[in-house]
C-alpha cells in the first residue's frame, strides 16, 4: 500500500471545501485544505452574506418613508457607503475567523496557498513550491463571474466581486443580466440612491422562475424607478467624459458611472492541473462527476460550483456531506436535488420551491392553480403601493402541491418552510386542514379554498 502525506487534501476553502475538510478531520482523518484567497469562499466573502447585509442597508429608506404612516416623524437621514462597507468587512472577517476556527478545532491543517494538481495523488503548493500527496482529493474551487470577453470594453466593467468594495457609490449604474445577481444588485443600488438600469436579453427577467412572479417583480421594480430594458444587449462599452458610454442594440446610447456584468458564473478550473491528473471537464470547464460527486479519476471528487450542477451554497454543503457518507462512512449517498427552495433577495423578495406553473404544465395532465394577490397589512398604513403574490401549483390527480411561489416580504423565510411541506409530499388537503395563523401574510397559503384556474394539457381552461 502506498503511503500518503494526507488521507484527504481539499482544494478550495469555500462552503463545500470547508465542510468536507472539517467533517473528515473530525472523523480522525489526516486532512489539509488549501485556499488561495480567503476562507469562506464566494458565499461568505463576496456573495450571499455580504449581499444580504447590503440588501438590509438598501431597505432603510423605504422603512423611513413607511414610518410616517405609523405616526413617526423621522429626522433628516443620510447614508455613508464607506461606513457600510467597513461594517460589512468587519462581519466578513469575523465569519472567516469562525470558518478557520472550525477547521483548526477539528485538527485540519489550514494552508493559505494556491494548490494545483501534479498527478492524481500529488498537489503542489505554489507559495512554497512544496509538493504533498493525498489518498483522496476533493476539488471545491467554486466559480467566478463570466467576464463576457466577447463584449468590446468588457474590461471597463465590474462584476459582483468589485461591487462589494467600490471606493464610492456611483451616481448611476447599468447592470447587465436578468438572473439572481443582476436583479438583487439592481435593487440594492436603487435602494441606496443610485440611478439604476437593468439590461437583459430575454423577454422577462429571472428566466427560470414562475412567470407570474417574474412579471410581478418587474412591475414592482419599475414602479420604484428601476429602469428595466428587456430584449436588449450591450454591444460596446467605452470611456466617455462623464463615465461610461454604452452602445445597445435597441435602446441606443446609454451612460452610466459603472457597468456591472452579472451574466452567470464560470467554473473555476483554469490552471488547476486537471489535465495532469487526468480529470475530465466539459466544454465550460466544469469538472464532470458521477452521481456521488466522483470524477473520472477514482480518488478525486469535485463538489460545489466547480461542477456546475446547482450553484447554491446549501447544495455544495449537501454534496460535501454526501461525499463524507460515501467515502468515510461506507454509505454511498447521492446528493438529492429535488425540491430545492430558493430565494431572490430582490425588493420585493421572491421565495419559491418546486415547479413553476409553466414547468408543471409540461409534466402533469391537469393542474389546479391557487393564486392570491393582496396588499399586505403593513402597506395599508404606510400607504406603500405593494402587492404580495402567493401561488400553489397542485397536481389535480394526486392533490400533491408540486410548486409554491411567493413574491413579497419574507418570501425567502416562507419558502424554507414550504420546502419541508413539499419534501414531505403534502397535498392541498393537508394545507386546507392546517389552521391559519392570523394576522400573517403566510395564512393565505392555507386559506385559498377554490382553485383560481386550471391547466389541462398545458393550456389554461
Ligand atoms: P444566473 O444564471 O442567475 O443569471 C445569468 C443571467 O445572465 C441570465 O439572465 C442570462 O440570461 C444572462 N446571460 C448569460 N449569458 C449572457 C450573455 N452572453 N449575454 C447576455 N445575457 C447573458 O447567474 P448570476 O450571475 O445572476 O448568478 C450566478 C449563480 O449564483 C446563480 O445561478 C445562482 O445559482 C447563484 N446565486 C444565488 C443567489 C441566491 O440564492 N439568492 C444570489 C446570487 C447568486 P438567460 O436567462 O436568458 O439565460
Describe the structure.
- With 461 residues, the chain is of the alpha/beta class.
- The chain has three domains: 6-144 and 266-328, 3-Layer(bba) Sandwich (FAD/NAD(P)-binding domain), CATH 3.50.50; 154-263, FAD/NAD(P)-binding domain (3-Layer(bba) Sandwich); 342-456, FAD/NAD-linked reductase, C-terminal dimerisation domain (Enolase-like, domain 1, 2-Layer Sandwich), CATH 3.30.390.
- Helix content is 31%, strand content 25%.
- The chain has 13 helices and 23 strands.
- It has helices spanning 15-26, 41-46, 48-67, 81-105, 160-163, 180-191, 211-224, 274-277, 313-328, 357-363, 377-382, 411-423, 428-432, and strands at residues 6-11, 31-34, 109-111, 115-119, 122-125, 131-139, 143-145, 172-176, 195-200, 227-230, 234-240, 243-248, 253-256, 258-261, 265-267, 300-302, 342-344, 350-354, 366-374, 388-395, 401-407, 453-456, 459-460.
- The strands form five sheets. Strands 1, 2, 3, 4, 5, 6 and 16 form a seven-stranded mixed β-sheet that branches.
- Helix 3 (48-67) packs across helix 6.
- The longest helix has 25 residues, at 81-105.
- It is globular, with a radius of gyration of 24 Å.
- It starts with 5 loop residues before the first strand and ends with a strand.
- The model has no long low-confidence stretch (mean pLDDT 97).
- Bound molecules: NADPH dihydro-nicotinamide-adenine-dinucleotide phosphate.
Q: What's the gyration radius in Å?
A: 24 Å
What is the helix tally? 13
User: At the first level of CATH, what is the class of the largest domain?
Assistant: Alpha Beta
CATH architecture title of the largest domain:
3-Layer(bba) Sandwich
Question: How many independent structural domains?
Answer: 3
Outline the low-pLDDT stretches. none
Distance between the termini: 67 Å
| Small molecules bound in the structure, each named once | NADPH dihydro-nicotinamide-adenine-dinucleotide phosphate
Kindly state the percentage of residues in helix: 25-40%
Structural class: alpha/beta
CATH topology of the largest domain: FAD/NAD(P)-binding domain
Globally, the shape reads: globular
The largest β sheet comes out as: 7 strands, mixed
Mean pLDDT, all residues: 97
Q: Strand-residue fraction?
A: 15-25%
CATH superfamily of the largest domain: FAD/NAD(P)-binding domain
How many E strands?
23
